[in-house]
Design a protein that fits this description.
heterodimer, A: 260 residues, MetI-like fold, 10 helices, 73% helix, disordered C terminus, B: alpha/beta
């Protein structure tokens, strides 16, 4: 099982892995962009119940949500050039990254479509009615009233989606892409310090996920600033052994009163 | 002047409105009464096309449209001549009280921001919410939200304001403040059509009361006519049910 564990390797691997962080982030950003565009295109026919297109959207969703991402990667990489060859497109020289971003993008698109549809449908129908009643066009009602509220609803789901995508990109190494996980494999094989490499790798993913989560949480709070702020949820649920029940009750009494 | 002619509407096989005609003069306050399921809210929502009538004609001022061949532009014009106050207030949740009133002034009327702002502030002060301009709806009580809703409707200076059970969702102690505002508006000669269950209020503000049941207008007349001397059996039954005190006196 390789060379004996040495913590020093973890630190020396960190900068080496970070050299390929750019590739990982490029895959994430490219797929996210593709995914959001695809998501909108797929969500629209479902929201507006357009025949035929709606069925196609359904098929798209079933495929990308119902098969493993690894298999989708292989299908795109090996299948797409074969499929397009008879149509006169030569993809045999296209960079691997192209297939990777396309596969991850369309995969993300399936989840983005459901996110978009669910968030838009979660906006109260009365909001649209009020917009229409005051004479807004359907475009204005959507862009000024529905969309801002739907965005706030979508952020937590979006946050999950981005983090899942970040972690999924680690499978791109199977097609020989030198992103972080690919680099880690190489380093491991070269030095035989597998455990240290993967600790370093896990650390990097963790830090990025954590940062993304915090940033998106801040965005959510900003978008939801119109919601009534809830009372500070700092009250502990532990059984308090000190003091009498009367004291506890008095405490609660002091805390209530006033509005939400 | 608002003129509804032979408005019909069905939900599936259920005919909600059957050839209803109604005309409202400028400055008139018409209250529509009726048991639930009588089609009164549907009729009101047909006036601004939140419900699409199957057939009939709607005329407001100099604008006239045939419902069976309504185009997008017609519907928009119709809606820009009306404003609505909703049972559930339907304030834009992501906008403050002030922004709620300003929104359509900016987006629909294309009013300069400063003008929209001063008009909105003045109206909110008039409904007693001068101190709540920057509050979001979630921080306002039901009564306050509904008063913002009324200010929002007034700001558009529509030819008619449609009130859809404006106090039905309110806690009993908040009903008074909203009715008071509506009463003031009624006195100022603004044309309105009101669907409500508040009998005392109806009696007080209405120039004309329309009693509906089963998708047709059963009876209409001055509040005195309808409340004191109802002609139709269905009206009598409804009034007995809704004001049981009347029975005790008799």
């Amino acid at each position: 099982m390789g060379a004996p564990f040495e913590i020093g390797y973890v630190f020396s691997f960190l900068p080496k892995l970070l050299e390929t962080l750019g590739v990982t982030l490029l895959i994430v950003a490219g797929s996210l962009l593709t995914g959001i565009v695809a998501g909108f295109l797929v969500a629209l026919p479902r929201m507006y119940k357009i025949p035929v297109l709606r069925t196609l959207s359904g098929l798209y969703l079933s495929f990308f949500r119902g098969t493993p991402i690894l298999i989708q990667l292989f299908l795109f990489y090996y299948g797409l050039p074969e499929l397009l060859k008879p149509l006169g497109f030569d993809l045999s020289r296209a960079p691997v990254l192209f297939f990777v971003i396309l596969a991850y993008g369309l995969h993300t698109g399936a989840y983005a479509a459901e996110m978009i549809r669910a968030s838009v449908e979660a906006v109260d129908r009365g909001q649209v009615e009020a917009a229409y009643a005051s004479g807004m066009t359907s475009y204005r009602a959507f862009s000024r009233i529905v969309l801002p509220q739907a965005l706030a609803i979508a952020v937590p789901v979006f946050s999950n989606l981005v983090i899942a995508l970040l972690k999924d990109t680690s499978l791109a190494f199977t097609l020989g892409v030198m992103e972080m996980t690919g680099k880690a494999q190489t380093l491991g094989t070269l030095t035989q310090h597998f455990f240290e490499t993967y600790i370093a790798l896990a650390l990097i993913y963790l830090v990025i996920s954590f940062t993304l989560e915090k940033v998106l949480l801040a965005a959510e709070q900003r978008l939801k600033r119109h919601e009534a702020r809830e009372e500070k949820a700092g009250r502990s649920f532990k059984l308090r052994r000190k003091g009498s029940y009367r004291a506890v009750l008095a405490d609660i009494d002091a805390g209530k009163g006033g509005r939400l | 002047m608002i003129e509804l002619k032979r408005i019909s509407k069905s939900f599936g096989r259920h005919r909600v409105l059957q050839d209803i005609s109604l005309s409202v003069k400028t400055g008139e306050v018409v209250v529509i009464l009726g048991p639930s399921g009588s089609g009164k809210t549907t009729l009101l929502r047909c006036v601004n096309y939140l419900e699409k009538p199957a057939s009939g004609e709607i005329a407001i001022g100099d604008f006239k449209m045939d419902c069976s061949q309504a185009k997008r532009g017609d519907i928009l014009r119709l809606r820009r001549k009306t404003a609505m106050v909703f049972q559930q207030y339907n304030l834009f949740r992501h906008k403050t009280a002030l922004e709620n009133v300003m929104e359509a002034l900016l987006v629909v009327k294309k009013m300069p921001a400063a003008e929209a702002r001063s008009r909105s502030v003045a109206l909110l002060e008039k409904v007693g919410l001068g101190g709540k301009l920057d509050e979001y709806p979630s921080r306002l009580s039901g009564g306050q939200q509904q008063r913002v809703g009324i200010a929002r409707a007034l700001a558009l200076e529509p030819e008619v304001i449609l009130f859809d059970e404006p106090t039905s969702a309110l806690d009993p102690e908040l009903v008074g403040e909203v009715l008071e505002v509506i009463r003031d508006i009624a006195r100022e000669g603004i044309t309105m059509i009101v669907v409500t269950h508040e009998m005392g209020f109806a009696r007080d503000v209405a120039n004309r009361v329309v009693f509906m049941d089963g998708g047709v207008v059963v009876e209409e007349g001055t509040p005195d006519d309808v409340f004191q001397h109802p002609q139709e059996e269905r009206t009598k039954q409804f009034l007995r049910r809704i004001t049981p005190e009347a029975n005790w006196v008799i």
